[in-house]
Amino acid sequence: MIYLPEILSSIEDPTGFLLESIKSALLIDDVSGLVSLLDGMDDTSSTSLAEKLESDPGFRDKVFAGIKTVTFNEAAVELFEADSIEELSRRAAEIAPPESLSSLAAYLQAIAGRDPRFSDDVAFVTLKGKRIYVRANVNIFENGDKTFAVNSFTNITDWYNDQNALAAVRTRYALALKGSQFGVWDFDILNQQVIRDAEYHRILGYGEGELDSSVMGVRALMHPEDLSDLGTMEEFPDSFDYEFRVRRKSGEYRWVRLEGSVCEWNAAGEKIRAVGTVRDTTVERQQLELMNLEKEIFKNASDGTSIESLISLVASKIDVAFPALRCLVLMLDDSRRSIRYAAAPSLPEDIRKSLLGFPIMSEPTTCRAAMQSGSFQFMHDAWSSREFSSTAAFCTPVGIKTIGSMPITDSTNTTLGTICLASNDSNCGPPEDLVSLERVARSLALVIERDKQRDRARKRELQIQNQQKFESLGKLASGIAHDFNNLLTVITTNAELCSFNVPADNRVANDNLNQVVYAAEMASSLCKQMLTFAGQSKSQTQHVDLAQAATKVASLVGSATKKGIHIDLHIAPGTPNVWGDVTALSQVLLNLLTNAVEAIGESGEVQIDVATKQVDQAEIDGFVFGGKIQPGEHVYVTVKDNGAGISPETLRYVFDPFFTTKSTGQGVGLATVLGIVEQHGGAIDLQSSVGSGTEFTILFPALAELQPAAEKSVSN
Prior knowledge:
This protein is of the alpha+beta class. It is 44% helix and 24% strand. Strand 3 (117-125) and strand 4 form a beta hairpin.
C-alpha cells in the first residue's frame, strides 16, 4: 500500500501540488494577528463587530492587517481577476466591498469564538471592478501558537443572479395576483388535499392555516345548491372553470370563480396535480343581475305591468343579487308623505302590510333621510338608533341590525320612494356596487314617471271629453229647463185660476188642483237644478268660510245618521276663505256627505278634510274635471268614506244628469255638484274602487287674505 505522505515526498512542491489539484479558489491565511486583535476587545458579538467595521475605518484597517495570506492557487487568481499571485497578495483588501461587511463581521465572530468552520455567501469585487458572488467555506485551525484559516471560494454569481431574477419574477407575480385579487390554489389529486395562498384565505375571510385543506373542507364551505354541479373531485377534468357560492368566515355567501388545469401526471398516466386561481366575482354577479333587472323593468313596463307588480319584481331580483341582504322597496303616495306600495319578499307579509299608509316622511327614519338628501344613506346600529327611532322600532322585531336606503328619484329630482337593503349581521357594510343599484332606482323612477305622464295624459284627455260632454249636456239641459219652465208656469197659473172657480166645499176638485200645483213646483225645482248644472243659476257671491260651512253640514247630517256611522271633520288652522255662494257651496257639501253616508250602510266612517295646498298643473291635469283652475294655492275639501266603492263602469257616468244607481234617486245630485264647482271656478276629482270606498276632492281658489280658524274635529 502506498501512503499519501510517500507520494507527496516525491514531489518538489507538495503544497502547491495540492492547491492546484483543487478546482475551487483556495486561500490560506495566517489570522494570528486577527485573533490577538479580537481577544483584546470586550464585545465580539456579530452586531457590535458589524457596527464597528462600518463606523471605524481604523478598525477595518487593523482587521485586514491582521490577515496574512500565506498562499493561494491559480483558481483564486482567476476568480478575483488578478494578473499574478503577487498582485492578489498585495491587493487582497480591495476585494471586500462595503456590503460584505456583515459577512466579515460573522467571519470575525467565528474566529473570536474559535469556531472550526464558517460558511456564508459573500459579495466580492474583483481587482478589475467586476461584482461577483461566492460561497465561502472557511476551516479554522491552530498550529502551535499560530492560527490559520483555509478559505475555499466557489463562484455562484450565475446562480445568485438567477435566484435574484427568479425572486423578482415571483415578486412581480405576487403583486400582479394581489392587484388583480386572484388567489392561487394547488390541488393534490391523489391525496385530495388543497393548498391555498394568502389571497385565497383573504377572499374567504380566514387567516392562513384556519381552513381545512381536505376536499371535504372545500365542499363544506360551498352553498348546498351549488354542490350538485361540482361533481366528484376524484374525476378532476383536464381544465376547470366553475363559478359557485362559498361561505365566508362571517357566514355570508360570496360568488367565486375557480379556474385551473391539470399540470402533472404520474408514470401510469394518472392526474396527480392541478393548479389554478380563484377570484371573488360577487360584485360582477351583482352588476350582471342588476343590469338584467334594468332590462326587465323596461320590458315589463312596456308590457303594461302594474307599478305594484313591478316593484315586487325589483325587490325579488335585488334579493337574488344581494344574497346577504334583504330588500324592501317602498313607494310614496301622490302626496309624497305616506307609503302607498311596499314590496319585501324576504320579510313576513304582516310586516309588509303594516307599512302601507305609514307616514314615512314625517317620522325619523333612514329612508326619510335618504329621500330628503337624494343620496344613499346607511346605518350600522339600526336596532338601537336614537336619531332614527322609527327605524329602530321597525328593525328590532325582525332582527335587522344594519339598513341602507337608496332614494328613487325622477328626472325632476322628485322623490318617489326608496330601495332599502337590510341585514341581520351587525358587521355587514353597505353594498359594494352602489352605482348599479342607483341605476336600477333611476330606471324604476323613469318607468313610474312615464306611467304617470301617460296616466295624466289619459286623464287630461278624459277631462277634455268630460268638459265637452258636460258643456253639451249643459246647453241641452238649459234649453229644456227654460222651455219646460215656461210650460210649468202656464200649468201653475191655470191651476190657480181654476181653484178660484171651484166651490170651497168641493174638496175633491180642490185636492186635485193642489196636487197639480205641487207637482208643477217640484218640476220647477228640478228645472232649477238643471240650470245649476248648466251653470246658469242665479247666485249671491261673497266671502265664504268653507270651514264653517263644512262644520254646519257635518252637524246637520251627523244628527240624522245611524249610530254605527261616524263623521270625522278635520279643519286645518288658517284655512282662507273662498269667493262664492254660501248656499250653493253648502249644497255641494251636503250632496257629497249624504252620498257618502248612504254608501256606507249600517256602519262605517266618513272623513272630511278642509285645508289649503299648493297645486301644480300635473295634479290639476289628473282631476276628473279641472275647469279653468290655475296652479297655485287652493282650498281643498275631501269627503272620503269606507263604503262599497264604485265600479269602473259606473264611474264614467256618475256626473251625468239623471244617471242614478238608487231606486229612489233622480240622478241630479252629482250633476248639481259639478255645476256649482264649475260655476265657482273650481275643480273636482273622484277616486273609487269596489271594496275600498270613495273619495271626492274639490278645489277652490283661495282668497289672498287668511281668516283665523282653530283646528276643529267634529264627530256625530
